[in-house]
């Protein structure tokens, strides 16, 4: 996809380059600036397109509406919505690449405006005189100064978006990325300068034509036929009321014009490109702010092994579907920072409680845990409603859609989780516990890989309860549970007699993915199986590759992957 999008932008760059290189309305400007004109305008067209589209993947409410309202009926088309983050990053990279071209071209243009100053076309010049310092064009004009500041803002946003900075200090990424609003405001000012102009009277003054009424003729070569008919032309202007001789008009080397060329700045097309998406994004952010303005009621906080915290809460009129995620904001932790977490429990008709599990890694989650728990070494804290004053205010924005909403829409689904990546599937399992007959899903393969045995206790009770329920309903084949312990010193078991059903499904080592896919394909011939993965990139790449490979059983695997936008 990234290669296709980059190729599309290169094609747009080439078409715009030819337009400015061959267009007659840019003839005089091209004579002054050369290829710098073509490169700057071509790169600007690509930047307009990408600055327009880069905001759309961040409209989470719009994406959730398109997915949940069934406005997009095709399952394949809905899967494209899951590529929103990839599309956002691709547009961002494209903006960086073509911004370099745009800046380089305008540096050349500033130099050419100064060196190629033309007194015949004063309105066409950006410089005030020949030899003017090009730095004045960069720092003393609105287009130049806004362009310099935008380059600095874009540099901060791009460098802070790298994986190393996002992992080491997420705050830097968060705060610098919100400079996008400053970038867009500067962009709207940048294009209003009207530095590059085009000719408006091509019919009255074709480029390269001869104007007999021209008073500045020091660089003009007068045709020989015209000198013979009007020998005094070199000292006096051509009479305006005298018709031009027919032999001169018919001269194949001369084109006569009736007036001087007129130049005009382009209307800022960038406003058309970015105003719509920018307004849509701002309206959505306002809607999200109003929707999440009321804090939730935290009903319980549970500390699980391996630094995992479970938060259960309630909120009026909150509805969510299995697989969706929410964004948590705690002002006492950070005034502006917020983070997405997948729902592990969704509200139903019988209970209004919903919850999330979060891994305590990083400053934000550590401060959040310390505020929620009275003592950080305390395993569990479940308080009654009337004592909720000790909990900090917590705001929930969402819910938002994710690929795992589709897991219940396949007849057969394969769900693979790595560590804390099990959270999206927990809400699916909780939903099946309330009732599975109303969904299309008839067989679920659940694979969970963890490094330590204690991690399985996060949802051990849920798995055992669902397993026992299906056995009582005579559907033991509805769910196939396989737990893999990747790092161990020997045979281990999940402590507790009630976990005997899980201990029999606990395997040591890592899954043999190829054999697993072959076995699933053999048991589900000529069916379409949804593959859902939330875990390390290494596992994701393996599953993606196996999903795209063919098999002899006519089984087709459709790959889906969690990606917070």
Automatic annotation (TrEMBL):
GO molecular function: NAD(P)H oxidase H2O2-forming activity; superoxide-generating NAD(P)H oxidase activity
FAD-binding FR-type domain span: 291-406
Presence of keyword Cytoplasm: yes
GO cellular component, one term: NADPH oxidase complex
Pfam families linked to this entry: FAD_binding_8 (PF08022), Ferric_reduct (PF01794), NAD_binding_6 (PF08030)
Entry's Gene Ontology BP terms: defense response; superoxide anion generation
Keyword Transferase: no
Subcellular location, principal: other
EC numbers: 1.6.3.1
UniProt keywords, alphabetically: Cell junction, Cell membrane, Cytoplasm, Disulfide bond, Endoplasmic reticulum, Glycoprotein, Membrane, NADP, Nucleus, Oxidoreductase, Transmembrane, Transmembrane helix
Protein name as it appears in the record: NADPH oxidase 4
Membrane topology: Multi-pass membrane protein
CDD domains referenced in this protein's UniProt entry, alphabetically: NOX_Duox_like_FAD_NADP
Catalytic reactions of this protein: NADPH + 2 O2 = 2 superoxide + NADP(+) + H(+); NADPH + O2 + H(+) = H2O2 + NADP(+)
Source organism (scientific name): Toxostoma redivivum
Function: NADPH oxidase that catalyzes predominantly the reduction of oxygen to H2O2. Can also catalyze to a smaller extent, the reduction of oxygen to superoxide. May function as an oxygen sensor regulating the KCNK3/TASK-1 potassium channel and HIF1A activity. May regulate insulin signaling cascade. May play a role in apoptosis, bone resorption and lipolysaccharide-mediated activation of NFKB. May produce superoxide in the nucleus and play a role in regulating gene expression upon cell stimulation.
Cell location: Cell junction, Focal adhesion; Cell membrane; Cytoplasm; Endoplasmic reticulum membrane
